[in-house]
Amino acid sequence: MSNTAECNNPERKNPESTVENKEVPGYSNFIQDIIDEDLKSGRYNKVHTRFPPEPNGYLHIGHAKAICIDFGLAARNGGLCNLRFDDTNPSKEDTEYVESIQEDIKWLGFDWEDRMYYASDYFDQLFDFAVELIKMGKAYVCDLTADEIREYRGTLTEPGRESPYRNRSVEENLDLFYRMKAGEFEDGSRVLRAKIDMASPNLNMRDPVMYRILRAHHHRTGNKWCIYPMYDFAHPLSDYLEGITHSICTLEFEDHRPLYDWFLEALNLKNRPRQIEFARLNLTYTVMSKRKLLRLVKEGYVSGWDDPRMPTISGLRRRGYTPEAIRDFCERIGVAKSNSTVDFALLEHCIREDLNARAPRVMAVLRPLKVVIDNYPDGQVEEFDVEINPENPGMGTRKVPFSKVIYIEKDDFMENPPKKFFRLAPGQEVRLKNAYFIKCERVVKDESTGEIVELHCTYDPLSRGGNSPDGRKVKGTLHWVSAEHAIDVEVRLYDNLFANPNPGEEKEGMDFISNLNPNSLEVLHSCKVEPNLAGAKPGDRFQFLRMGYFCVDPDSTDGKLVFNRIAALKDTWAKVASKE
Ligand code: ATP
Ligand code: MG
Predict the structure, then answer these.
(1) Are residues 74 and 198 in the same domain?
(2) Are 188 and 253 within one domain?
(3) pLDDT tens across 321-371, in order?
(4) Cα 559 to middle of ligand 1, angstroms
(5) Is 289 annotated as ligand-binding?
(6) Is residue 514 part of a domain?
(7) Which of 15, 96, 146, 308 could pair covalently with 319 via S-S, beta carbons 3.0-4.6 A apart?
(8) Same domain, 223 and 236
(9) Long-range Cβ pairs for the range 349-355 (8 Å, 24+)
(10) Pocket around ligand 1 at a 6 A CB cut-off
(11) What broad class describes the main subcellular location of this protein (predicted)?
């Protein structure tokens, strides 16, 4: 049937939609205000941002927020945004992550063009900066152990104590630092520290560590280095080397900003970048820390980083989310300076809004109950012309076959219905969507179990197309699938991965794993869908009438389609039923 093609998602023609490089009138948030001021005052004459992921995991929806802000602000101000891998921690990093991060950013619709960098590209320059600081007397090699350094650091209420190695001569520091680089000392035996202020009220300023000795294979520099710069030292200088103007990061770095500025000032650098912090995204029923997500993957609680229940970009993509819906979500949550938790329902709202007008609608019966229409002619098949999407008439129509034996949802029948049950029941008449009125005459049960296995109904031939022949009303309209034309498919229904709205909070040593929802995945094996779905491909999205939005999973084979439910519809039928 030629309708198959029409049923595929229109967006597939252009799967990688992009964000236009233009000023958006009325766009405003506190970061844009700062940028406006900076451009007006002449502090900067351009906008250059960066997105700096650490390649130690897959990107998640929180990163999508940061990506939309970093790339979005650059695009809106006629500027540029770099992608920079913050790969200063070799023991946790991997090229698998580097690749997935690029794929996810592109899929979201953003483009770093030829500006993909690695902090490790700057290891030589960073080393030179460190040497310069030593020569200025602003950095020293310290032999305290990690525990001692922590102990000497003091607390929020107590000042720290100076390291006994703090006043080494420049010559001795240079000698030791070069020998650290040359591999003469054991891992962890010495560090390079900035000489700032052990009494600073800001703990980050109490002679922070700049370099550590670590014999670890780096995914890009191999075994060239056995000392690695710390994030707080590498980050501002990487920003500087790339000509970043606005270095946008999350709130937990606010207390690191004085240190960020200290390195740039101490080195007398011109055209210094400016760090601006915003609140991280938190979502209900979701953990976002990469450490926790990694545990879910490693310990097999999910099928992988792209499990459709994961809040990762790859998980959301596999689930069926569109880049447009995710960008819309990031736009709606806005950019603020105070931490808050966003309701997961908002993300679902965004995908419903996006798919409502563009996902083809089809009929699919998830839990089939066989219905025989006794007075319908044996062997007769009718085809009804049905709109592919009434919200979008331009998508045209499809043909849906009808015959004597059909399937309806088990839930759409009750033998002893409560008063306001408007679906099918003995003696009760309903409309089959776009087909006919039918009335239930008889129920067939399995003799041994008592389970309802089949209904016998009659139809009114004058109600063709589902229209009332004489003005009489039916209160329920059911979706259905013709049995002889139906395709068997597998459907995976998802619920929140966690049962607790705030699963990451680890109170009294409780492990977040204990908050997992044991019913987050339900697999239905013999669902029946209309034949128009025959040519569906992984990634195609549909609305199954009354059942929600669904996306074809890559686990599909030639023999069997597998669908993921992206989100349910707001089911008013279920609401009425549950009130009884
Ligand atoms: P995690 O703490 O989960 O390991 P991270 O912050 O270390 O995450 P990075 O790879 O360093 O992860 O993050 C890259 C960028 O994304 C950073 O600028 C970071 O501030 C931002 N980011 C990370 N998580 C969120 C979030 N939940 N909301 C908004 N931005 C985020
Ligand atoms: Mg980080």
Answers:
(1) no
(2) no
(3) 999 999 999 999 999 998 889 999 999 999 999 999 999 999 999 999 999
(4) 41
(5) yes
(6) yes
(7) 308
(8) no
(9) 350/325, 350/326, 351/320, 351/321, 351/322, 351/325, 351/549, 351/566, 351/567, 352/549, 352/567, 352/569, 353/325, 353/328, 354/322, 354/324, 354/325, 354/328, 355/322, 355/325, 355/541, 355/543, 355/549, 355/566
(10) 52-54, 62-63, 65-66, 86, 249-250, 280-281, 288-290
(11) cytoplasm
